[in-house]
# Entry
Amino acid sequence: MGLVTPGSDTDDVEQKPLVPRVDTLAGKTIGLYDNGKPAAEPLLTAVQEKLQDRYPDATFSWYHVEHLNQIKNDDEQDAVVEWAEGVDTAIGAIGDCGSCTKFLAWGVELVEDAGTPGVGLIDEGFELDYQSNAIERGRPLRYKKTPVRCETTDLERIREEVSEDVMDGIEEELTRSLNDKERAEPVAQ
# Structure
């Protein structure tokens, strides 16, 4: 007797390329995508402050999802894409397990759908969750692990935890050239 696995007859998911990264953050409009988790706004605030110090000529545009499950709504998804079309690159926060990481990956994928390079900031323990949700979405979405936990709201503490190494990693994910896997040609339908 064989094992029967429910679901599709194939493991193939249409693979979509990532949007080419920006060469620098200088003079760019940087999107900050808050997925509705308690730590998202203070984490992105600390990131914005540190990027503003590095790139005084950069500007910032925020998108706030009031509740992370709201991203399942078609109107919300359309609004994310419309917002992302107006920025040069975007950073989404924060993912930590289950639906939180899933919906962060959805948000970053919507940013990519808009033709804007994006990166997700995830809680250190949830790299596999983000990667598997990115695969499900059909893109090898970029991310940066941070020491900030999803429920942390103390801005001073977050400012300390978002070190220069963390900022260097975020910047690298936004500017590093695409590798072969990330440049995958779309599958013809």
Residues 1-11 have pLDDT under 50 and may be disordered. The first helix runs from residue 40 to 54.
